[in-house]
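Ligand-bound model needed. magnesium ion.
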Amino acid sequence: MRLSASLIPTLKETPAEAQIASHRLMLRAGLVRQMASGIYAWLPAGLRVLTKIANIVREEQDRAGAQELLMPTIQSADLWRESGRYDVYGKEMLRITDRHDRELLYGPTNEEMITVIMREGAKSYRDLPQILYHIQWKFRDEVRPRFGVLRGREFLMKDAYSFDLDYEGAFLSYKKMMHCYTRIFQRLGVSAIPMRADTGQIGGDLSHEFHILAPTGESAVFYDSDLDYADIENQNDRTKFGYDPKTLDVIYASLTTKYAATDEKHDLEAWAKVPDVRKREGRGIEVGQIFYFGTKYSEKMGFSVVRKDGLRVFPEMGSYGVGVSRLVGAIIEARHDELGIIWPDSIAPFRVGILNLRQGDPLTDQICEHLHTKLGAEALYDDREERAGVKFAEADLMGHPWQIIVGPKGAANGLVQLKRRDGKTSPRELSVQGALSALGIEDDLPPRSV
Ligand code: ATP
Ligand code: MG
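Prediction:
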């Protein structure tokens, strides 16, 4: 993509309305614009991030055996009367009346709707277990929308729902989802700690929230520092190709036996048993939550199936949310410096920024064009007539994980500079071919012939 032809409206000034770094950076890097309180338009670069996060979530849900469907954003009030939640949900629910005076609402979550879909589709034990999910916009009329997409009113959520014949099955689904979430966050380049949590509006008795630690987080969290080092990565490697229940138990135990709780579930007695040197108190941003709530909805909404022995039972359910749009802000909150965003490779809007330091110099232009062709859609080519300083500052602000800097001096010798945004490796002078191959791309042309 050529920057000269893109809509990436970066801002030099710090927007006054933004109180925290991620909000400021999302506005400054041209990712989103607020259209009404808590309601955002996703601009092209922002949408690329949102889509990449959604795709990682989708791949991992599919790998865990969940099936994707798509439920509507608008729901009927009658659906929520069946569960009894229409009256208790309160002002956060955006209620709508259509031209025939029928009562509708913009869905804040989908337990009711999925239960009705299953009630019509599943009749016997043969139809269970099932895990279904969708990635869809939600609306909650938050009293105080703030911090940009971290607490919006309209936001994108992945919500999954599990249906099992008995508690053992439901608990297995819960463990699968917990493990699936660790894979998701690992791929997103952040660490999110599962904490014992309250069940709130959804109800039920077993729940964990996943928190990314950040001083700006809205929840107070307490945890054992052993969880900082939980060896999830290696365990995840072992389960690349499916679910062995024994491994799942080991992972679940490693994630849940150490102390970790939000302030709502903070248990002073259990906390006192954690050695002082391992006690960590801080703030967290909730990026996901998983619930087991048994037969709460299946019973109220009359969804039962026939067991193998002929007995009729209400399926045991759970629900599992990931805040897809909140994650964009939360990841920036965890990964930025004074210059801008530091995207992980997996979700950067562009993996590579090509910086042409002398637009119009034939050799520099030629090398840049060549790199742009080779790197394709994952590169943003800064081909504007701008000063080098401006290009450096904007590339740092936008946070491409890699920069290839091309200037006339190097170009004369067929050399470019390859730089990593996170500063973990020092910048290197390389041939054009060398830079491409460092990025995993084969170049068929000798560097001097471009
Ligand atoms: P919170 O406590 O932050 O209000 P919640 O517990 O009400 O969130 P859930 O019902 O657990 O939210 O929804 C699942 C996920 O959706 C949350 O973990 C969060 O990541 C995301 N989410 C919830 N509310 C919002 C919001 N207003 N804006 C953006 N994301 C949200
Ligand atoms: Mg929650």
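The chain has 15 helices and 23 strands.
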